[in-house]
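Subject: sequence -> structure tokens, single chain

Hey, anyone have a minute? Need the predicted structure for the following. Not urgent.
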Amino acid sequence: MDNNSYWKKNLWILLFGTFLTGIAFSEVIPFQPLYISELGDFSKSELALWSGMVYASSFVVVIFTSAMWGRFADRHGRKRMVLQTSFGSAITLFLMAFCTNVWELLILKCLQGFFDGVIPNSIALVATSTPRSKTGYALSWLSTGYTSGFLVGPIFGGFLVKILSIRVSFMVTGMLLLSFFLLTFFFVEEHFKPDPSKLKDKKESFVKILKSFPNTHFVVWMLIISIALQIMNNSINPLITLYVKELMGNSGNVSVVSGIVAAMPGIGMVIVSPWFGRFGDRYGTNKILTIGFILAILFIFPQGFAPTVLFFGVFRFLTGVSNAAIFPSVQTLLAKGTPSESTGMAFSLNQGAQAIGICIGSLMGSVISSIWDYNVVFYVSAFVILITFVLVRWKVPELKKP
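Reply:
Had a minute. Here:
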């Protein structure tokens, strides 16, 4: 069958499916600390530590399994990977509703990390089943799908907890992912033929892969920036609900407000990203990256002394503005700074770097807040970005070019 006869159907099904996946994965974030608090009698510092550990656990597993699943997809097809990851994630999230202690939740979060890959494999499936002349169009639509899901998820999850309960919310999340599995199984087509060369590929070391780039120094620093950005964002994400609860005086609709606040960076990023993209094309991506670093430092630090939830929410939105400048700039610089035959590997390494940053950030945030308080996490995060900015300006001459 010709690609033209089924690629649009694949696109719209996977667009809807990744939207559901974005909701499913992001809706549980705002109330996860509240759920942990129900699973045991924890002090404030213990709750912060467990929140960080549970949040980080799935990403720790991703670091070690992403390459394995990538090779599996090359050998057996992307549709099979979408089916495996969506079904595994659906069952895992559904089972989280029945946890009786925090250790069970931690194990299931690790299992969730093992089945991670729904969205990357959906992207790969659309890219490989779409005519080359339509690939940009298709992927831009797919990006809109899962980004919108991640924005809607925290707000949807907050209201779901208020109307129903935390445990029922996990069940709904699992059912959303199961519906994606069924849609993909019955309606998505892939005419996959394995590449014989992929079947013979041997696993290469991380260092060997890095050395294969013509400009290894530049690629390494881009990966360092990605790690620092994820440290900044994810030292805070597991603690947002606890910080909001404290700002609200431990009363009110914490789950709803936390969901709205958690969505603010994503909303800010979606609104201003196109503007930064056009500005970067005209004046240089390196300038946008510099602006993003400066804005991140200015916007993160004040969150540590937020007097109200409204103040905190506004600066979370502004953090999304700084993210809109930095994240796409790193991706653009990687694409421009690596040969076309190496760009795919560069982005794979960048995905791994982000997972490392998420693990470090979430664990760092939980440890800092357990020793001192939540507000100190924001000060340390701003310091991490400041140091990264200084080092990048010093060590990466490519970013100083006009």
